[in-house]
């Protein structure tokens, strides 16, 4: 599957960026948003559940839905792709993981310093003053889909606590975007894994990397708009392709 030239190019790289999207989390059983059959937006109005105006209109509906999603993440486990990405760091001088996902599966698999472009389900904050909020220890109540649940209150201003994710109409966290953009422009190799290539501005990262001379490698279960731009395109499950890649690297030693 992997040529020696391809493998040696990875080993010679001084900086590799791994950019992941919903497809890698889907392999752990976490629903995506755009899948034609099971996508979350097929069943819910995105602007009612993922926008500041939706939260203002019905805080209990939004908070309950995100607690349902957080429970799904807490019950999921990292898959072989997450573990392979963490292990890849031992083969290269520098590895930067950038994700569009709002779960913590990369961290639980052992990746350090993960940059979350779209925020995290595990780091909510006050809607009014922006103060951070820590979830109580233990699992939340059973979060059946569509369950209404009033959000906690901020200890600083008594404002409603909101999910720590990026909603429609909001900009990406400036620090996360700067880290991702700088890494894309400075890397030798850029992996795009499990991302549709449709969500901007995150979808611009492979373009930035290629413009600055990086080799672009795509791993995705289906075709994407990035297909014609990449140097290497592997279609299939990341949980199968990435472990095979690691084994091939190990075989060189």
Report on this structure.
The protein is of the alpha/beta class. It folds into two domains: 1-28 and 77-119 and 172-253, 3-Layer(aba) Sandwich (Rossmann fold), CATH 3.40.50; 31-75 and 125-162, SIR2/SIRT2 'Small Domain', CATH 3.30.1600. It contains ten helices and eight strands. A six-stranded parallel beta sheet has the order 3-2-1-6-7-8. Strands 4-5 form a two-stranded antiparallel sheet. α6 (80-88) runs parallel beside α10 and α8 packs parallel to α9. The protein is elongated and about 60 Å long. The relative contact order is 0.20. The model has no long low-confidence stretch (mean pLDDT 92).
Quick recap:
By secondary structure, the chain is of the alpha/beta class. It has helices at 4-12, 22-26, 46-49, 52-57, 59-75, 80-88, 105-109, 174-186, 205-211, 238-251; strands at 16-20, 95-99, 115-116, 125-126, 161-162, 189-193, 215-220, 232-235.
């Amino acid at each position: 599957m992997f040529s020696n030239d391809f493998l040696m190019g990875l080993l010679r790289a001084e900086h590799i960026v791994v950019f992941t999207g919903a497809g890698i989390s889907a392999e752990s059983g976490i629903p995506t948003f755009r899948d034609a059959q099971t996508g979350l937006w097929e069943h819910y109005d995105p602007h009612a559940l993922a926008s500041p105006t939706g939260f203002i209109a019905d805080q209990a509906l939004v908070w309950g839905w995100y607690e349902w999603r957080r429970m799904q993440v807490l019950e999921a486990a990292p898959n072989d792709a997450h573990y392979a990405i963490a292990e890849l760091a031992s083969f290269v001088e520098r590895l930067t993981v950038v994700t569009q996902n709002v779960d913590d599966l990369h961290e639980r698999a052992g990746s350090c310093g993960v940059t979350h472009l779209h925020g995290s389900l595990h780091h909510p904050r006050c809607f009014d003053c922006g103060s951070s909020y820590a979830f109580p220890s233990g699992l939340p109540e059973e979060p059946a889909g569509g369950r209404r649940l009033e959000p906690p209150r901020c200890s600083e201003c008594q404002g409603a606590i909101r999910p720590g994710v990026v909603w429609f109409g909001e900009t990406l966290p400036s620090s996360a975007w700067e880290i991702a953009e700088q890494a894309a422009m400075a890397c030798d190799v850029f992996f795009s894994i499990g991302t549709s290539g449709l969500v901007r501005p995150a979808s611009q990262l492979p373009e930035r990397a290629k413009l600055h001379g990086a080799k672009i490698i795509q791993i995705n279960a289906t075709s994407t708009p990035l297909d014609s731009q990449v140097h290497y395109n592997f279609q299939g499950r990341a949980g199968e392709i990435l472990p095979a890649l690691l084994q091939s690297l190990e075989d060189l030693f």
